[in-house]
Amino acid sequence: MTTWLKHYWKTLGIAVIIAVIGTACGAAATPTQAPAPAPQLPDTTGAAVWSYLQAENYQENWTLWPGMGELYPAKEPHGALLTTYLSSDALAALNAKAGVMPNGAIIVKENYMPDGILDATTVMFKVDGYNPDHADWFFTKIKADNTVEAEGKVPGCQACHSIEKDNDYIYTGELK
Q1: Cβ neighbours around 87 below 10 Å, total
Q2: Do the domain assignments include residue 54?
Q3: Is residue 150 a part of any domain in this protein?
Q4: Residue 8: inside a domain, yes or no?
Q5: Which residues share a beta bridge with 142?
Q6: How far apart are CA 73 and CA 80, in angstroms?
Q7: 72-95 pLDDT per residue, tens
Q8: Buried b / exposed e across 15-49, counting CB within 10 Å, b at 16+?
């Protein structure tokens, strides 16, 4: 066999080995799937906000208000006990002492009776341009049976929370 022919077969053999290894490695690789997109922010209806919160699985995936824990003492109109959850952007604003919550921030307050039974879930949802006279907050109250009791520019919510207008309408903790 000539030197040229030996070189040809050696080169061809190496190319075949590389192709086989490349194919085997490529076949063994698991295709990566893009993460599921986050649910789009809801419309300004109580039902849409509640549906969004369920899709987000907020009780499992969101953070409790720092330092408050579950079932901390509360006052009317929210019941005897509260558990408060924050969307990630709301938590970031709170931790940064941003002074205001960003557009899209959501605060969820589970309202419990003295015996620890859930009465309602009240939600504050910051929507740019929705309610300029009241820091753009959308309010909703969902009863334990999942019915919407109040939603939108709720006069009672606005009046009470406006006392804390210098803290972006929030009672639970300081944003500055």
Answers
A1: 25
A2: yes
A3: yes
A4: no
A5: 121, 148
A6: 6
A7: 999 889 999 999 999 999 999 999
A8: eeeeeeeeeeeeeeeeeeeeeeeeeebbebebebb
Count of other CB atoms within 10 angstroms of residue 114: 9
Give residue 78's domain range. 46-167
| Cα–Cα–Cα angle for 85, 61, 75, rounded to 5 degrees | 15
Burial class of 157 by CB neighbour count within 10 A (0 to 12, 13 to 18, 19+): buried
Residue type, 90: A
pTM for this entry? 0.78
d(CA 164, CA 147): 28
Within-domain flag for 149: yes
Say whether 76 sits in a helix, a strand or coil.
coil
Total tally of structural domains belonging to the chain: 1
| DSSP code at position 32 | P
